[in-house]
Write a structure and sequence with these properties.
single chain; 334 residues; alpha/beta; D-Maltodextrin-Binding Protein, domain 2; 2 domains; 6-stranded mixed β-sheet; 5-stranded mixed β-sheet; 15 helices; 43% helix; globular; disordered N terminus
Length: 334
């Protein structure tokens, strides 16, 4: 039994009842792009807090997707974890999601019919601690809590890889894990409510500025890897192929904005976070070593292979290309 089933009680496959399929087919036929009814199709995009979602935040702030897709009603949701995004996509409340690698792979393993439209970022994930006594994973005691978004988050896989290397048991710290969104976990770490926070940019940068230190880096354990992805269920993608092509193109343009005009991108990120932090600091985050926005899948197979070892994936895909739509298959991914 996989870890997801153990935690969540899922079945082996995700299938819609026949009646629901028939209703959805009628809906698709009745409100296709440019259909006679004039009713716009729903396109809800879900993301999480953090620097890794900057391309989506640029699109959201500037309304580029709404302008490029006038026949769609574009909505944006900010959720606390990749598993929450996965649940929303399974229930069809969300059409496009931006989970991390491991929630995506867990869903794929359980039969969720989704694939990767684009990678979004490569980012190093750090385990942060404030107490000086905490220098290696051996220093964590049973009462010490380590915060991360969810038990099947990318951070959980990174912690288990570290535990395997340092402690000889990938699951040695499983009981120390507590689920907290990154903004709450930052406050919990600074106030001493948790001993560690396995996080992502910009939270790890902010915590370091506030006196916390780095205990573990995902790049040291798993090499360079994507942090988050842009994923779509196959049925929606196939029924809305032109819109998905446009979404991919707008994602590329947003990445170009971040690269070529970091001041503009930083102002957008500040506006999207109510100037907490200010644009100047967002710009410094964008220029940190190890922060890169890219459409190329990276590290999928390495994560999948380790996730098999710890029970999250029953069998890795034969190739990373099995996980992506055709627009990515010609890239030099991994």
């Amino acid at each position: 039994m996989s870890e997801l089933r153990r935690h969540r009680g899922w079945g082996a496959r995700v299938r819609l009842p026949a009646a629901a399929v028939a209703v959805l087919a009628l809906l698709v036929t009745g409100c296709g792009g440019g259909g006679g009814s004039g009713e716009k199709k729903q396109l809800t995009i879900a993301l999480q807090p953090g620097l890794a979602y900057a391309p989506l935040l640029v699109m959201k702030n500037e309304g580029t997707l709404e302008k490029a897709l006038p026949n769609y009603k574009v909505s944006w949701k900010v959720l606390s974890s990749g598993s929450a995004i996965r649940d929303g996509m399974i229930s069809d409340d969300i059409q496009v999601g931006a989970p991390g690698l491991s929630p995506f792979l867990v869903g794929w393993n359980e039969g969720v019919d989704w694939k990767i439209l684009s990678a979004l970022s490569n980012m190093d994930l750090w385990l942060m601690a404030k107490e000086k006594r905490l220098r290696s994973l051996k220093d964590f005691q049973g009462s010490d809590k380590i915060a991360m978004p969810a038990p099947d988050s990318m951070q959980s896989i990174v912690l288990r890889k570290g535990a395997q290397q340092q402690l000889g048991d990938a699951k040695a710290l499983d009981k120390n894990i507590v689920a907290l969104d990154h903004p709450s976990a930052l406050q919990a770490l600074m106030s001493g409510q948790v001993a560690g926070h396995l996080t992502s940019p910009p939270y790890q940068f902010i915590e370091k500025q506030k006196g916390a230190h780095v205990m573990l880096r995902s790049s040291d354990l798993l090499g360079e890897h994507n942090f988050n992805l842009l994923v779509v269920r196959e049925g929606f993608h196939n029924d809305n192929s032109e819109a998905m092509k446009t979404l991919f193109e707008q994602t590329q343009k947003a990445m170009d904005t971040i690269k070529n005009d970091p001041d503009r991108a930083a102002k957008i990120l500040a506006a999207e976070s109510d100037d907490k932090p200010a644009a100047k600091q967002w710009k410094s985050f964008l220029q940190e070593e190890g922060v890169r926005f890219t459409t190329t899948p990276k590290g999928l197979m390495k994560f999948a292979q380790f996730m098999k070892k710890v029970g999250f994936v029953e069998e890795p895909p034969g190739s990373w290309r099995d996980l992506v739509f055709d627009n990515l298959k010609g890239l030099q991914g991994s």
